[in-house]
């Protein structure tokens, strides 16, 4: 193999991987176990994906750390000790680096290298990947482990070049510490990211102005240090947990499922019960799982949403600010990705924090020294954009992906993403996605989901090898049926109601489609297994032969590995 970061290299491996985040690393591990050769291209200078890029103040996971861990290795689970219930970004990145070192995975990764195109050579039955550093690599199979939230979005406010202060996007945060002491800081966005960053930045900045378009529901995380006995208990149960978790809706365990409808309780009982849940902390595992039907029934949802609105009024001292922080009545709780926080609503009681409503008076432009909205100018020395991502499809569509006969991913997704099981796209053979649209992905514990996807992909690659075949492709009919099923499942819930990134509403012009599969991780994983056991129902498996297409892929002057 050629050395890292040399220009114009050519390599041929069994499997090419885009991305060396949590998914890419597990894929490399699995391929190594099988004796298959692999090469991953990674845009960052290090492993970690999401946790490599998102270094903003307050960044931490909001699935319990013990569960937001790889599960493939009991030894790894025994070795690693999480310090907090919800680990912060530096600890998460240390963990991912530990995994990369522990399993010697870095040697198959080429860093600082972004995949720009993936073209399929039908005759050779090979994918060719090209990168922004001039690399060319071919392989029979290609796996896109590019992340669901990896293409940052910054609204194109005019005047950015005029702004004389510093500006940041939370997903492209500098590696060196940013000091906001003594500064007037503005933050745009109150999604999960803004909600984590706002309390931390407000504690440092001279003044923080929060530009809020849509108020969000959030609940206290109640983060804390993990006790040694909790660590030990999890480690002791790890092997069992790994099995249990595959039979849960969100690929998480350890929280009670709802047993009754809210109307079965009196108002006093409801209040006491939701109060208890609020004290325990958490959102998907707590408030949203308090009563049956919260995700599907307006009335059931309203009970929990109203409880959070009451909490906001209880916590925030200025009634006008509290009212502005309350999400509107037509926004179901949980229909935008539910955040959890540490002192978020409390932060608005600080003297150095101002909340600005940019729904009714939108941001018009940046100026030399701040932000101008439709009715005021705010003087700022630094601006933080916590404005999210072109989620689930943005990163994949940024790569020129082309199958046989010039059929592209852009063609395939012209009317929104269509996939079979979120794993493959009809017309693009031997190209797999991890946590693609149409899979539970962002509606599940992402690590369990990526392990399930990777295991399934390894299964089909093994199966092809054992049966003398070398091509797998999703059928059009299976894909159409899956897309319809995914839509029906979502439409039976309140999820598609919000203008969220789940439906692409945050990106101007993006086709509105509810992208994740919301039928439950358990149901989905069982279906994937059943489909495999049924001879990969809905996939076409065939033999094409072909070879390395070495000469065809090699550009003039490129050197072969
Ligand atoms: P987000 O949820 O998309 O939030 C973006 C925010 O920017 C929203 O408040 C949005 O307002 C606002 N915004 C966008 N364009 C704007 C404009 N032109 N003017 C004013 N405001 C504008 O993005 P995010 O907070 O980065 O979170 C994305 C996802 O990342 C999360 O949902 C979660 O899945 C993941 N995440 C996870 C963690 C974790 O695990 N701990 C932490 C952070 C993020 P509107 O609501 O009105 O569109």
**Helix/strand class:** alpha/beta
**End-to-end separation:** 5 Å
Second-tier CATH architecture of the largest domain: 3-Layer(bba) Sandwich
CATH superfamily label of the largest domain: FAD/NAD(P)-binding domain
Count of runs of 4 or more consecutive helical residues: 17
CATH topology of the largest domain, which one?
Answer: FAD/NAD(P)-binding domain
What binds here, in terms of ligands, is:
NADP nicotinamide-adenine-dinucleotide phosphate
* CATH C-level class of the largest domain: Alpha Beta
Please compute the radius of gyration using only Cα atoms. 24 Å
* Assembly state of the chains shown: single chain
DSSP strand content: 15-25%
Count the E strands.
Answer: 21
Kindly describe this structure:
By secondary structure, the chain is α/β, with parallel strands linked by helices. It folds into 2 domains: 9-47 and 105-151 and 391-560, 3-Layer(bba) Sandwich (FAD/NAD(P)-binding domain), CATH 3.50.50.60; 160-385, no CATH class. 32% of the residues lie in helices and 17% in strands. The strands form 5 sheets. Strands 1, 2, 3, 4, 5, 6, 17, 18 and 21 form a 9-stranded mixed sheet that branches. A 5-stranded parallel sheet has the order 7-16-8-9-12. The protein has a 3-stranded antiparallel sheet with strand order 13-14-15, with no helix packed on it. Helix 5 links the parallel strand 8 (184-188) and strand 9 (207-212). Helix 9 packs antiparallel against helix 10 (319-325) and helix 14 (446-466) packs parallel to helix 16. The N and C termini lie close together (5 Å). Mean pLDDT is 94; it is low at 1-6 and 549-561. Bound molecules: NADP nicotinamide-adenine-dinucleotide phosphate (NAP).
